[in-house]
Amino acid sequence: MPISCTLIPGDGIGPDITDATVRILDAVGAPFAWDIQLAGMAAVHAHNNPMPDATLESIRRTKLALKGPLETPVGEGFRSVNVALRKTFDLFANVRPAQVILPGGRFDKVDIVLVRENTEGLYAGLEHYIKIGEDEKAAAESIALITRLGSERVIRYAFEYALAHGRRKITLVHKANILKYSQGLFRSIGQQVAKEYEGRVVYDERIVDACAMQLVIKPEQFDMLVTTNLFGDILSDLVSGLVGGLGLAPGANIGAHAAIFEAVHGTAPDIAGQGIANPSALVFAACLMLEHVGERALGARIHHAVNATLREGRTLTRDLGGSASTSQFADAVIARLLA
Ligand code: NAD
Fold first, then answer.
1. Res 26: pLDDT
2. Where are the alpha helices (DSSP H) in the chain?
3. Which of 109, 193, 214, 318 is most buried per CB count within 10 Å?
4. Which helix (H) or strand (E) holds 261?
């Protein structure tokens, strides 16, 4: 039985990398029936709406989406569609595995899974301007909302992920020394949940600034990280930088009733339309999606083929020092899978 999956090509390099990813999946008979939908700028151009009802209805029906990156205007303009999708479908856990694939970089042994709370914190969307005198925008306030429910479910998800994937240690990253209420709550819930997993998963804590420094100096000491929304956003890009850049980092947005898989990177406007983006991150995201639907072996096979193509080094995209196009890279992966 084919599995219905919403496919959002996205903006910028999105259509190129989704096309490459779908070709690779289709080549090995991955069981997806694609329902192609628009979001982001592509949807603004087509329907004057960055998040059309048809796209939301499709995800509501399939409960599964593979998504290219979406452009968000900086400052003024519509709110991030990515954030809106996470909130609409209550995709509370953002899982970002990062592993060294290409030897010879700064580190050889980094293998970190970062679990980021995805719906609360400073990204809860609780923002407003404060008028003082005649100045409508004399000040601005953004509220970092941390709830017991939101913290507990994402921390528990991280522990369950650790058990399911043979991970040994979780480091909770916080700033409870300064933000004693919001970050303090997240940290104390971490300590409570950790007790339930004592003897099975080691629990550790770091203050976010120290953690950023230690990630750059000695990342091998970390196994899994769990943290609040903003810290997770920043640290996951940092971690992807440790293992070869954004072109290789996938992400899964997991909720109780839907899951959306994507690359960590954005629309890469500097190289959009040139057909030279690296599709690996989105292909890896598709591998996470295969695992999610119970096709772990197929996901592992594709992951292995991408890794081998990257390590062989003959068909690399420009971000990794090669000159291959997006579709040439996909062809090389397909050739390896079908060999
Ligand atoms: P970006 O990730 O798009 O690009 C950062 C740098 O990495 C650029 O130099 C880019 O060329 C390079 N890069 C990224 N992906 C690559 C790939 N697959 N292959 C080769 N090089 C790659 O970040 P940005 O420029 O800060 O953001 C651009 C837009 O993307 C913004 O509108 C932002 O809001 C959006 N964005 C969307 C998502 C998402 O949809 N999940 C995530 C991040 C940013």
1. 96
2. 14-27, 41-47, 53-62, 81-88, 148-164, 182-196, 208-217, 229-242, 280-292, 296-312, 326-338
3. 193
4. strand 259-263
Return the CATH class of domain 106-243: alpha beta
Strand partners, 226: 115, 172
Residues 6+ apart with CB under 8 A from 331: 315
Catalytic site residue 204?
A: no
User: What gap in Å lies between CA 65 and CA 170, rounded to an integer?
Assistant: 28
Could you give the CA distance from residue 169 to residue 200 in angstroms, rounded to a whole number?
9
Q: Looking at the predicted structure, is the pLDDT value of residue 105 above 90?
A: no
Q: Ligand 1 centre and the CA of 82: distance in Å?
A: 13
Delimit the domains of the chain by residue range: 1-91+245-339, 106-243
Average pLDDT, the chain: 94
d(CA 205, CA 213): 14
Domain 1-91+245-339, CATH class in plain words: alpha beta
Q: Is the CB of 134 under 6 A from ligand 1?
A: no
Q: Residue 177: what are its φ and ψ, rounded to 5°?
A: -70, -30
Pick from 74, 265, 270, 326 the residue to mutate for probing ligand 1's pocket: most ligand atoms within 8 Å of its CB: 265
pTM score, whole prediction = 0.92
Quick check: do 1-91+245-339 and 106-243 share a fold?
A: yes
Pairing of strands 259-263, 111-117: unpaired
Kindly tell me if the per-residue pLDDT of 74 is higher than 80: no
